[in-house]
Amino acid sequence: MEETGAGDIAEMAIANWVNDVSTMCQYYLDRWTPHTAQRWIGTLAIAIIYTFRIYYVDGFYLITYALGIYILNLLIGFLSPKVDPQTRPQDPSILPTKDSDDFKPFIRRLPEFKFWYSVTKAFVIAFVLTFFPVLDIPVFVPILICYWILLFILTMRRQIVHMIKYKYVPFDIGKKVCSFNLWCFFM
Q1: Membrane-crossing residues (predicted)?
Q2: C-alpha angle with apex 113: 86 to 31, nearest 5 degrees?
Q3: Higher local confidence (pLDDT), 84 or 25
Q4: What is the spatial distance between Cα 119 and Cα 26, in angstroms, rounded to a whole number?
């Protein structure tokens, strides 16, 4: 007969607690999924709080720069198609490139929910990191700002050229709605 040691009981208790916490977090994430506007307003509030924190402590610019680079990377994934027609031109699931091609909906490489979740986590982690003075590395801020703006412009230019070349728009501004008249019945 094996005896269960105190270490095994503690490990099981921690594993159960981690499982309960992850289940609870997943439950709330599932409930927030359909509320897109409210989620982004919450993330905007977190970003404003983070900005006030950076302004108040007058530091942690390297963490903010890394946060900006990470969000730029997420934005590129959000604006890119799941299957890049440039790398796999023979794939049948790519975007239509001619008017005669069948309609294929735009499928993002990074879905909106995962984009929101990653951006929110990044702001929360960056906010927590601002409470560790060892991470406040002195840098020359104008250089970081200029470099980030240059990187943003070059990256977005390349992405926009890609969007124009392969004729896709990653935004769904809204479905075209026919006003109520007789033409709706004949279309």
Answers
A1: 40-56, 62-80, 115-133, 139-156
A2: 155
A3: 25
A4: 17
